[in-house]
User: Fold this.
Amino acid sequence: MKKIIVGLLILSLFISGCVTNSKPENIDIAKEVEKVVVKTINNAGKEFQKMEMLSNVEGTPLCNKGTQTCYYTWEDTNTNKIVKSATLEVWRKDSPNYELLFSKTVNNDSGTITYKVEEDTGGNTYEARGSFETKECFDNEYD
Assistant:
């Protein structure tokens, strides 16, 4: 039901932006509106499916001050795996700038990347950033 509601909301925005006082001779407005509704509903359905699949990739980058270690653990729980690779970046914040200390990419749909900060960490702030790249087949199907 939500797919239809979203489609109709998008449709109503499209129509409200395109209303004119005259109708061109050879255009069947009902058929044109039907095409827009069907296309919008199909696209909305794909967007919901895409968001659901992306939300099935679990993982959070973290830094442990006590061990001076940053890590990113991720897992693609989709039946048809969508993750191509994952990257951990570790940044030192040197107000107001950031300096990249470490970056590593692993080609796998699940795993852990770790980095131990070897420098004196006194007074420094560190940030771990984790990201993943999706497989080309996923990108082609949902773009």
Summary: The chain has two domains: 2-54, 58-142. The first helix runs from residue 2 to 16. The first strand starts at residue 57 and ends at 64. Strands lie at 57-64, 69-76, 83-94, 97-106, 110-116, 125-134.
